[in-house]
C-alpha cells in the first residue's frame, strides 16, 4: 500500500511537471511568433487609412478655402501668439542650454523619427482633434456589422490603445512641443521627420498645421535637433504641385538653423523629403520632377533635394528607380505586413539600392496596435514584448548597415507605434495598455541605447 501511494504521488507530480513544461513551451512559441510573425502578403488587408487603393486617406480643402480662411482667422492669430510666447520663453531659458547639452545624449543625425502635430484640445484649439478619432468600418459590410461604430470621447476615451503621459494634449501647446523635443533628444535621435500638408490642407480627421512649423523649428533648434519634412498624400499631388511644395518649404523654412540638410557622398548638402504613399503616383509623373530631363525637373536648381519614396511591395523598387527618387524607406512598424516592412527582405533591398546608387532607410518600430480605431484589425497587432520587438527591429536594421535608420514613430498614437512616454490608465470600461513593468521612458532609453550601438558599429563599417 505504501509503495502504491508513493507511485501515485510520483505520477501526479510527473503529470503536473509535464503540464507546466508544455505551458512554458507554448508561451515561448507565442513570444517568438510575436517577434517574428509569419510572412504576410501585401494582399492581406491592413486598414483603410493605410492602403490608398482602398480609400484615399487625405482631403483637399479647396472648395471651402475662402470660408475656411475666415473661420481660421482667430486660429492663425492664436498660433502667431503661441510662436511669440515660444520665442520669448526660449529667450528667457537660453542660459540653461549649456547645462541641458551636458545632461542629454548627443543627437544622432542618422536616426530619423516620424513626428505628428495633428493633435488638438479645447484649451488650445477650441475642440478635440484626432484624440476623438472615429472608429473606421471594415470595407466588407458583413464584417463591419460585427464591430462598434462612432467616435472616441476625450479626454478619458481617446483614439489610442495607450495613454500619453501628457494627456490628450494639443500640438500647439509650446510646453508640449518642448517636452517632445526634450524626449526626442534624450533618445539620441537627431532628425524629426515632420508630417506635412500644404497650407490649407490636412488629413480627413485633422486641420491644417503648416502655421505650426516655425514653432517646431525653433524648439528643435533649442535642443540641437534638425527637421525634415514628410510630405503626406494630399489630393491631386503630382509633379507640378510637388515642385511648388518643395519651393515653398525651402523658401520659407530653408534658412532656419534647424532645417535639415543631408551631406551626400559627393559632399553636397541637400534638403531631404520623405514622400508618403509615393507609389500612388505613376513613375512617369515623378520622372517629370525628379530626373534631369523631366519637364518639371527640380534637378540642378536651387531646390534640388533628396527625395525618399515609400516602398511597400517588392515591385515598387523598380518604380522608385525609374521615377528618379534618391532612396526608399519602409515606414510600417509591422514586421510581416508588407514586403518592405518585413525584416527578412531588408538585405535584398539594401543590395538593390547599393547597385542602383539609392539610399535604403529601414523603418523600425516598438510594436503595432490600432484596434482603438480599426477594431477589426487584430491580426496586424505586434506585441511589444517589453521592448524585445523594438530591439529585434533595430538588430535587423543594423545587419544591413544603412546610412540612416528611421523610427516609426514618436507619437502616432492611433497605430500604437509611439515611443513617447505613456502611463497606465483605467477608465470605466477601458484599460489602456502601458509600458509596465518598465517606466514611461523605456522606449526613449532603448532608442538611446541603439543609437549608441549604431554609432559604434558604423565606425567599424567605415574602417
Automatic annotation (TrEMBL):
Enzyme Commission no: 3.2.1.130
Claim: Hydrolase is one of the keywords in the record: yes
Compartments in which it is found: Golgi apparatus membrane
Its membrane topology: Single-pass type II membrane protein
Catalytic activity: N-{alpha-Glc-(1->3)-alpha-Man-(1->2)-alpha-Man-(1->2)-alpha-Man-(1->3)-[alpha-Man-(1->2)-alpha-Man-(1->3)-[alpha-Man-(1->2)-alpha-Man-(1->6)]-alpha-Man-(1->6)]-beta-Man-(1->4)-beta-GlcNAc-(1->4)-beta-GlcNAc}-L-asparaginyl-[protein] + H2O = alpha-D-glucosyl-(1->3)-D-mannopyranose + N(4)-{alpha-D-Man-(1->2)-alpha-D-Man-(1->3)-[alpha-D-Man-(1->2)-alpha-D-Man-(1->3)-[alpha-D-Man-(1->2)-alpha-D-Man-(1->6)]-alpha-D-Man-(1->6)]-beta-D-Man-(1->4)-beta-D-GlaNAc-(1->4)-beta-D-GlcNAc}-L-asparaginyl-[protein] (N-glucan mannose isomer 8A1,2,3B1,2)
Gene3D superfamilies associated with the record: Glycosidases
GO molecular function: glycoprotein endo-alpha-1,2-mannosidase activity
InterPro entries in the cross-refs: Glyco_Hydrolase_99
Annotated GO CC locations: Golgi membrane
Pfam families, A to Z: Glyco_hydro_99 (PF16317)
Keywords in alphabetical order: Golgi apparatus, Hydrolase, Membrane, Signal-anchor, Transmembrane, Transmembrane helix
Family: Belongs to the glycosyl hydrolase 99 family.
Name of the protein: Glycoprotein endo-alpha-1,2-mannosidase
Organism this protein belongs to: Phainopepla nitens
